[in-house]
Amino acid sequence: MAVLIDKFGRAITDLRISVTDRCNYKCVYCRTGNDGAIYAELPWADYLRMARIFTELGIRKVRITGGEPLLRKGVVEFVRELAKLRTHDGEPLDLAITTNGHLLADLAQPLKDAGLNRVTVSMDAVDPQTFARITRVPNGFQEVLAGIRAASRAGLKPVKVNCVLLRGFNDDQIPAFGRFARDEDVVVRFIEFMPLEEDRVWSPEIVVRLEEILQRMAAFRPMVEIPRHPSETARRYCFDDGVGEIGIIAPVSHPFCGHCSRVRLTSDGKIRTCLFSIWDHDLAGVMRRGATNEQLREFIVGVIGRKEARHHIGESDFVAPSRTMVHIGG
Ligand code: SAM
Predict the structure, then answer these.
(1) CATH number, domain with residue 72
(2) Which domain holds residue 138?
(3) Which of 77, 187, 193, 196 is close enough to 325 for a disulfide, judged by CB 3.0 to 4.6 Å?
């Protein structure tokens, strides 16, 4: 059976492809105010060839990300082409997009029709003013809400809504997100802030950790943990009456590296085996030099063999990667 296994025995089944590092938002925990993309964007055909080779090697899930992937013209066609690929054992791929939702209202149905299965929308506050303060975009909230609702209508379910919590910025939004999950029938997922931002403002004190999120949500309504697959990054909870789901992704306080099934491709075609990798591996370069599919497969297998055991956030030997989240692809 074709599967990518790293030296720690982890099966790599989940590929994230960043298709641009441009973004129309400037979230305080992610980007500085600069507008410029730093890294190149490849032609769609290159990402497609890479995705095909990865699927031959055992990838089952492909998530399109960025930067903001919906900024890139041709993304719907790209999804249509990805939807034609099959896993090594003949199954359709599980196709998802992570987006800030700003352009989603018009694209949700075309993306669904092209073969997209699911969407994750980043929304860091349900209060429009807090939202504007975090994203540094004055009137984005209504667009994003419209995008979330359009995704639900199009059947891109379950729609997941990601919220990075920052102490002093949006941690007061926890109960309101509980209500939002129930009212809008979406899965709200809180993410612990990781040191991957351009402004280098991360400190352990700003991180709102899993236990505190649980405690503060319980004041809104009690939650019960739901069983999950070990490779799922989010711990899952439902409210005591069964209405509404909350996830908590806790890479800082409860790292899940031991079950990591992910590999990332940056917009300029570099493979990253961990968000916190110090190195990247130039798949696009190898391709440009005329490698055959077999040579590309060998390159990928070699790279996966060097996947890191774990991240070192909060430890004295931690080194922040030179590429920040927006330039890797979340
Ligand atoms: N533009 C898209 C979006 O907003 O979802 C996709 C790219 S964004 C980099 C992917 C995800 O990474 C988002 O959910 C975002 O909130 C999250 N993210 C960005 N910087 C982060 C950080 N420093 N710590 C934790 N999550 C972060």
Answers:
(1) 3.20.20.70
(2) 14-327
(3) 196
Amino acid identity of residue 121, one-letter, is V
CA distances from 253 to 132, 207, 266, 276, 296 (A): 28, 9, 26, 16, 37
37 lines ligand 1 (CB under 6 A): no
**Nearby residues of 267 by Cβ (< 8 Å), 6 or more positions away:** 18, 19, 20, 21, 37, 39, 40, 41, 42, 66, 67, 327, 329
In terms of residues, how long is the chain?
A: 330
233 occurs within a structural domain = yes
Report field, pTM of the whole predicted structure over 0.85:
yes
Ligand 1 centroid, distance to 325 Cα (angstroms): 7
Residue 41 covered by a domain: yes
**What type of residue sits at position 54?**
F
Radius of gyration of the chain (CA): 19
**Mean pLDDT, the chain, whole residue set:** 95
Ligand 1 center from residue 199 Cα (angstroms): 14
Indicate whether 104 pLDDT > 90: yes
For ligand 1, mutation pick of 19, 28, 29, 103 (most atoms within 8 Å of CB): 29
Tokens 């490849």 — which residue? 42
pLDDT score, position 37 = 84
Atom of ligand 1 nearest to the CA of 192: 25
Alpha carbon nearest to ligand 1 atom 10, residue: 330
